[in-house]
Amino acid sequence: MKIVLINTCLYGSTGRIMEQISRVAQEAGHNTWMVSSYERPKLRNKKYSRQNIIIGDFLSLYLHIGLGHLTGLSGMFSIVSTMRLIKKLEKIQPDIVHLHNLHDCYVNIPMLFRYLKNSKIPVIWTLHDCWSFTGHCAYFDYVDCNKWKTGCQKCPQFRKYPISYIDNSRYMYKLKKKWFNAVKDMILVTPSQWLETLVKQSYLKDFPTKVINNGIDLSLFKPRLTGFREKYGISSQKHIVLGVAYCWNHRKGLDIFVELSKRLDNDKYQIVLVGIDEKQETRLPKNVIAIRKAQNQQELAEIYTAADVFVNPTREDIFGLVNIEALACGIPVITFNSGGSPECITETTGIVVERNNVDEMEKEIVRICKTRPYSKEECIERAHLFDMNKKFAEYVELYDSLSNS
Fold first, then answer.
1. How far is CA 63 from the centre of its chain?
2. How far is CA 181 from the centre of its chain?
3. Buried (b) or exposed (e) across 380-394, using 16+ Cβ within 10 A?
4. Bridge partners of 353?
5. Kindly report the CA angle at 216 between 211 and 217, in degrees rounded to 5?
6. Which residues contact 255 (CB under 8 A, 6 or more apart)?
7. Cβ–Cβ contacts within 10 Å for residue 202, how many?
8. Which of 339, 353, 373, 391 is least surrounded, with the fewest CB atoms within 10 Å of its CB?
9. 210 class by beta-carbon count within 10 Å (0-12 exposed, 13-18 middle, 19+ buried)
10. pLDDT digits over 210-246, tens only?
11. In whole angstroms, how far apart are CA 389 and each of 217, 320, 327?
């Protein structure tokens, strides 16, 4: 079977997911092509091959981004590069097209969906955020906006990603609804039950849906020998409270950790944050250990292993793979009740507290560190349900089912 996978990029979380699905599909005997946007030279790597297709070039990408910013018409440019992509697709004649992230201004969306409609190729679309059924934003939980259910307008986040200087959310909502519903043979995959529930309330409600959780590499994320405490001079008498994010901001709850640093006893607790940028590091309290970025996933697993509790104060999250990574290293999780994050844990592996409730978060940190109510073994057992090889094999099963039908 010939499968074409399309995503914004080959790096980052969605890029890795697309690549891992492609690998598992190839191991099952399928022929795959990965399609992504032009990437700046410093981001390029050896993943490119004749089987990988790059959409456009530096000029087309940044022209599209600029025009998208100026007009609010994200995804309506890159005409020539999308024509070339469609010609390549016509030559490949794929049996299935598997879409991932389409936003970020790299492909002409109406042209792509017109091709998918006319070619009648079965489509799988993995939704990594909420952009597919809004007039602009990728997330709306953070601002408690429900306009997407009936028709976006007066968007409170039109200057947020994907950035626009003009609020064109009403027009884009109508266009996206028309484009996406024109394709009849399409299955929507969501990484969490929470996102599936939202999809069923949107203009995409008539499409069949399937939940396939994202997975992690259990050969990397597991309890490891670690010299983390010694490296950072953390006493064995102190409890390590860990937070990890690939981009810290208010949405991810950075301010919650700042508040916790004022409340927790410095002699008993040490907050460690991974993924902090240079500017954030200068603004953090001195009693917080800030780590820019782990050198690799093995080092990250060593940091998880050293912790006593993992805290995820995210205010909106599709699923929360960092929760699973922590569990895989034997560490219990505290998370806000937001998005799909609570789906990662059970009553024997962590606790869910209401969003923005810092008092309850502080109380649970102290309780877990003092009483250790969650066993390392149960945390690891829970994480094993999210083995990426098993999870991505579910996509291959879905490919096969479409082929057989």
1. 26
2. 24
3. bebbeebbbeebbbb
4. 336
5. 140
6. none
7. 17
8. 373
9. middle
10. 999 999 999 999 999 999 999 999 999 999 999 999 8
11. 8, 18, 17
| Conformational region of residue 356, where left means phi above 0, alpha means psi within -120 to 50, and beta covers everything else | left
Which residues face 124 on adjacent strands? 98, 187
Residue 316 tokens, joined: 């909106």
Preceding omega of 162 cis (within 30 degrees of 0): yes
pLDDT for 377-399, tens place per residue? 999 999 999 999 999 999 999 99
| Torsion (CA) 346, 347, 348, 353 in degrees, nearest 10 | 90
Within 8 A by CB and 6+ apart from 336, the residues are 253, 312, 313, 314, 315, 352, 353, 354, 355, 356, 357, 361
The DSSP secondary structure of 35-62, one letter per residue, reads EEE---GGG--TT--TTEEEES-HHHHH
